[in-house]
Request: fold
Amino acid sequence: MSHSKTDRPGKSDRRLSAAEQRRLDHFQNVCDRMAATGYAREVLTISPVLANVVVIVAAVPLAFLTFWLYRTFAPATATDSLEVDLGLPLILVALALVFAHELIHGLTWAIFSQNHLHDIEFGMMWKYLMLMPYCTCKTPLELGPYVLGGLAPLVLLGILPMALGIATGSLFVTILGAFMALSAAGDVMIVTKLLRFRTNACEVVIFDHPTEAGSVIFTR
Reply:
């Protein structure tokens, strides 16, 4: 079994927005219905502080790895200088991709959820003193689809652009891909924690946590 606490879903030290409170109320209704049919519940969330620490610690080795891969495998005609300035253009593209990151989560989960896009909610929330977009799925999913949706932005916006940038000799695209891969560190932590969960139950479904970073697993 996981070492996570089975605390009350939605428990938070911060004040919830109206949208978060509505989601939490809906989630607790779902919990009551699933408990009535014999499901046990375990909360698997990650600490925002720990996620920030992981990003900071991973940034340096990822930067070295990215530049090593570029210098080693980029075409001989590639340049070591950026085609565009690293200032405003990079900021604007990265900002757009932050929204695309959440969109990819939602579209992937929507494929597998019962009511498709009607089960997906997008919004904005204060996170780490910044107004950040978010995406959440309001119905339980099986493990495979949940993991796929959780890691899809890492692959589509991080790993693939890095590979494309290296293959074409675009240092700008390579760096942007590395940045988006780093921004998916929280997703990787959530999925890793979920995959480490062990149970002998025959039925396992995953619910995106309504207010915190992570998931809630139901077993029966």
Summary: The CA atoms of residues 9 and 43 lie 7 Å apart. The beta strands are 40-45, 120-127, 130-137, 204-208, 214-219.
